[in-house]
Write a structure and sequence with these properties.
The chain has 2 domains: about 230 residues, Spore Coat Polysaccharide Biosynthesis Protein SpsA, Chain A, CATH 3.90.550.10; about 70 residues. Helices cover about 45% and strands about 15% of the residues. It is built from 11 helices and 8 strands. Strands 7-5-6-4-1-2-3-8 form an 8-stranded mixed β-sheet, with helices on both faces. Helix 10 packs antiparallel against helix 11. The longest helix has about 35 residues. The chain is elongated. Bound molecules: uridine-5'-diphosphate (UDP) and magnesium ion. Uridine-5'-diphosphate binds next to strand 1 and helix 4.
């Protein structure tokens, strides 16, 4: 065991934070009391994802009081998926990593249950909400529909319903997860892709403690497209079959026109039917092009091979060693040990 290794905590907690100044002190208090109860060495890594408020200052303030706090400041807002990945890349936990939201919707009190599952050898202990407190009926309905859909189209990966990113990932599952460097990161899908043993731990999801969610219906819609295109090519296949179906319909229509002309002579000039057919075909073609475009755009983005995030500063927890496993990214040069 290298000298550093001895200083590594068993569990690291990774918390992506974007405009969370109001809840962070309360969050850390509850997190610390839950983690202390477990009785293992732990640290926490707060990832400031380009917050526009005083989140970074609040984190630095907390870190000054608690040596188990490390922080990572991204150069701008990269989005939750990238922030989470940045945190996972820099997390030191030798046994595993806990992923949790800062807004207290994922109650830290559930972590001991996740740890218990991990203690029994489960690689991916994910928290599953019993009910969605604080979400309207519309959001609940769309969420259910989305998970139904994704479980049907997803290619051989089972994405559990009613679970978010809140989970405990064993070190070996995390190392496998970190191999997936794609830009379009549908985290729930990536967690599922890794495989290994998994178990759901039930809990009651609380409404947000403070601040507001950054999700609206447009972003949820994009999230759904991300999930589907990331894990299935079914939409492309559907385009093929819709095309075939329409072509077949057109053939029947043409035959019927010929038959009518032969039987009843000169047909009435069919302006409305021509318009209907032309518009319908135009619509089908545009939709199909759109579907192809979604995939093409993703290929374009992936082919640029840009880093997933840029680190402005990294301050690992004082009680832990300063060498993360994935010391990549342009920000590596700016790393500082607090
Ligand atoms: N978050 C982030 N970057 C973003 C948006 C959100 O790091 O661009 C963090 C946020 O601070 C919180 C977590 O991701 O800790 C979940 O965000 P939010 O509560 O807005 O999402 P929801 O709970 O509604 O899914
Ligand atoms: Mg939330």
């Amino acid at each position: 065991m290298p000298a550093d290794e001895a200083k590594r905590p068993v569990l690291s907690v990774v918390v992506p934070c974007f405009d969370e100044q109001e809840v962070l002190p309360e969050f850390h208090r509850r997190l610390a009391s839950a983690m202390n109860g477990i009785g293992l060495d732990w640290d926490v890594l707060y990832v400031n994802d380009g917050s526009r408020d005083r989140t970074l200052l609040v984190i630095q303030d907390l870190a000054a009081q608690d040596p188990r706090i490390g922080w990572l400041n991204l150069s701008r807002n990269f989005g939750k998926e990238a922030a989470l990945t940045a945190g996972l890349d820099h997390a030191l936990g030798s046994g595993g990593v806990v992923v949790i939201d800062a807004d207290l919707q994922d109650p830290p009190e559930v972590i001991p249950n996740l740890v218990a599952a991990w203690g029994e050898g489960i690689d991916m202990a994910y928290a599953r909400r019993r009910r969605r407190e604080g979400d309207g009926p519309m959001k609940r309905l769309t969420a259910t529909l989305f998970y139904r859909l994704i479980s049907r189209v997803g290619h051989r990966v089972e994405i559990p319903e009613d679970s978010g990113d809140f989970r405990l990932i064993s070190r070996r599952a995390l190392d496998a997860l970190l191999e997936l460097r794609e830009h379009h990161r549908f985290m729930k899908g990536l967690f599922a892709w890794v495989g290994f043993s998994s178990r759901a731990v039930l809990y009651d999801r609380a409404p947000r403690a403070a601040g507001s969610t950054k999700w609206n219906y447009w972003s949820l819609w994009n999230f759904a497209i991300e999930g589907i295109t990331g894990f299935s090519v079914l939409p492309l296949k559907i385009s093929t079959y819709v095309g075939l179906l329409v072509a077949f319909g057109a053939l029947i229509f043409g035959l019927q026109l010929i038959a009518r002309t032969l039987l009843f002579g000169n047909p009435i000039p069919g302006y409305p039917s021509i318009m209907a057919v032309v518009l319908f075909l135009g619509g089908v073609q545009l939709i199909t092009l759109g579907v192809i475009g979604e995939y093409l755009g993703r290929i374009a983005n992936e082919s640029k091979r840009r880093p997933l995030y840029v680190v402005e500063r990294f301050a690992p927890a004082v009680s832990a060693a300063p060498t993360p496993r994935h010391a990549n990214g342009p920000g590596a040069a700016f790393r500082e040990s607090a």
